[in-house]
Amino acid sequence: MTKEYKTIVDIAGPLIFLEKTEPVGYGELVQINLPDGTTKRGQVLDTSADMVVVQVFEGTQGLNDESGVVFSGETIKLPVAKDLLGRILSGSGEPLDGGPRIIPEKRVDVNGASMNPYSRRPPEEFIQTGISTIDGTNTLVRGQKLPIFSGSGLPHNEIALQIARQAKVPGSEEEFAVVFAAMGITNEEAQSFMEDFEKTGALERATVFLNLADDPAVERIITPRMALTAAEYLAYEHDMHVLVILTDITNYCEALRQMGAAREEVPGRRGYPGYMYTDLASLYERAGVIKGNKGSVTQFSILTMPGDDITHPIPDLSGYITEGQIVVSRELHRKGIYPPINVLPSLSRLMNSGIGEGKTRDDHKAVSDQLYAGYAEGRDLRGLVAIVGKESLSERDQRILEFADLFEDRFVRQAKDEDRNIEDTLSTAWEILSELPEAQLTRIDNKYIDKYHPAHQKAE
Fold this sequence. Notes:
The chain is of the alpha/beta class. The chain contains 14 helices and 20 strands.
């Protein structure tokens, strides 16, 4: 027989504090019975010999010391089935699309099981997003975790949706799915997400979790874990290749900070909990490929940097854990360029593993290096032009300056529905590089120039 405890001694924000309970487990699910007959759900956040702290999912309005608390004896579990595909769910896994509840094949703990490092397979298979600045210069590899660092007001959500629609493994017949989790977004953003998924048909191979800005902050902490649990099930039970898109990690961290303040914890940098690194790692490290398993989980986490500050604790800690970053530029956005991805501070640490002959193309690495070098020099020259004027530059420098403009206008810029394959991306790169004298293509081997340079192809 389950016991009901009416021993609430304090209520602080989304937390309630109980005393004189029997031993309960960390993360245990709780049902709270209010005096008016309604119920709320919660989870054990902290437990000790004389006090238990419970975080309430639906907020603590209406609770008092007459409310009863029943401990369930189990942790939060997500009902999983292949029917998850094509569904739109709340941040706690409840249907939002008017459809029935998921009939589960099984129920899985949302905290997941730790992946044995020895059983991980090094990521090495190319994922095509259809966006040149990612595929060409900061390649995403199956099993990688690659965050997008953005700022408020920048089109990171549009980039996320484009990736969700277009992502695929070229030449592979294996099933590919997208799990999209949005945390702390507005109703307007949620509507645009749902409309886009339904209109483009991407929903057929996607599972969407939506946590809105007016939903409880506690739910925001569960949402990414729900999404990753669904992704792991599809990947490891149904051999699917799953791309998980989490937006916005900053809202998730704000929820962590709110919970820490309610618990009166000693704050770390800028008021965020000292354990935020570990907490973020528990999300990011659930990406990967397991030896002997056909499925994989790849992660794109989007975070908006407060004040565009890349040294802020959230992007700073994320950069330590993940394998690179894609940086969205306010300067390019002001120029009207979409997607405004700045390749210079962007980085994919696993790029070299996923490109080359048999994966993308033999000239991919050399072309990427040459684009990067030319664009970096062109950006530096823009600063010089502001001081001495364009006329003072040598002919070579003027060519490099024009190359930087061309790179932004032809390579970076593309339409929101433009899905470039890797061949198109590399061909566009060669067209831009052909504007420079061959003698300046110092990062590219002559055999690639002979094989792919437009001038040599016309000569043939």
